[in-house]
Amino acid sequence: MQASPRKEALRNNVVQAAEALVSADGLGALKARDIASRAGCSLGAIYTVFKDIDALILAVNERTLMQLADQLSTFEVQQKADKVDGERWLVGLSHVYLNFAARSKMLWLALFEHRMSVGSELPQEMAEKHQMLFDFIEQPLAILKIGKSPEERQLLARSLFSAVHGMVVLGLEKKLASLSLEALKEQIEEIVSAAVRGLVTR
Amino acid sequence: MQASPRKEALRNNVVQAAEALVSADGLGALKARDIASRAGCSLGAIYTVFKDIDALILAVNERTLMQLADQLSTFEVQQKADKVDGERWLVGLSHVYLNFAARSKMLWLALFEHRMSVGSELPQEMAEKHQMLFDFIEQPLAILKIGKSPEERQLLARSLFSAVHGMVVLGLEKKLASLSLEALKEQIEEIVSAAVRGLVTR
DNA sequence: CATAAAAATGAACAATGTTCAATATGGGTT
DNA sequence: AACCCATATTGAACATTGTTCATTTTTATG
């Protein structure tokens, strides 16, 4: 099933329109008619390039995930070049993640809102993208001399990511009331660096 | 605005019905007509005791939060009686949280799905309930001799909760594929205890 | 029992995702 | 240029769902 150039263009317009709408007002405000209007196509056209809105959201999320991967990748080459030690590398990664979430808040939130509201499993293509995120953590973990097998490091990478993710989610949720972005950054740094120290001095 | 006994009964029926439906099929499957049918009342009756479905979900979430608080409270008296040290106390708290989330998965998920999808701020009554969760962490943190002011401990409690929350969220999401409940428990224990060790040996 | 206040009802409306018969378009062939 | 047909596009129509409100039913009171 090859995509004709016309369909490809339409698909791009639709994804871009949806991305803009999510970015502006969040996933909950995404309406099929708004997408069509912004993409300059008819309502039905959306369904000629996506099975349903869910599939479209998945495409938007894939782009978001790629953008995040870009930032992490750029950061990775810097750290390697600078021969940064494992602890600071990991703390830096958490900062990159926080910055991305804060700057692309709605798109980043959509990544997780969607998974929760959908019963069906997300395609393994997406699962691989998530795995990719964990991979960025394994490098600095390998530098730290913790007595861990590769499998254990994999689990640990996942756990560290999840922990930072939790702090970012709950921290950004009520940024106004309690926590400035800077304070949140310090909190994340404190926990990450404490966890790393605790792991190495086992 | 006092609640008449009849309205009170209706309200209870509606909340119980909603809770049962969420518990069975998740927040996304909650439909006004199903609630009415299960509560044995008319569709319109719901709106005589709740402004809208959002307000009803808030009531369900409040009950869930209270159940969680109960479990944490029971655990707290045990730990005090047993004079458990701070690190094991904190690890135990994370296990109580994980068990609650795993056993009441849908209701627990509703706690967070809802907040994300609603733009309006959640009432401060609910915010206080959340604060209450953090308070359960401050006790064992106070036992550990970390050089921290009460305000810093408050922030730290919040951060630790968030970190554990993140591991539980992402851990339970794909329980089948990668992580058994027991393995998840071990992972959480490893991170929490490492963080605590890192904090005390600062 | 009569009557007013309160409560409950469910038909109707609005918003939204999805489908599909009808219409447009584009490119190849003569 | 004219014709044809496969393909793409359209938007009216339908299904689902939250919400409202005029109407009906129930309850309480004198």
Automatic annotation (TrEMBL), chains A, B:
It holds the Pfam family TetR_C_33. InterPro entries: Homeodomain-like_sf (IPR009057), HTH-type_TetR-like_transc_reg (IPR050109), HTH_TetR (IPR001647), MT1864/Rv1816-like_C (IPR025996), Tet_transcr_reg_TetR-rel_C_sf (IPR036271). It comes from the Bacteria. Keywords: DNA-binding, Transcription, Transcription regulation. The keyword Transcription applies. Residues 31-50 bind DNA. Residues 8-68 form the HTH tetR-type domain. This is TetR family transcriptional regulator.
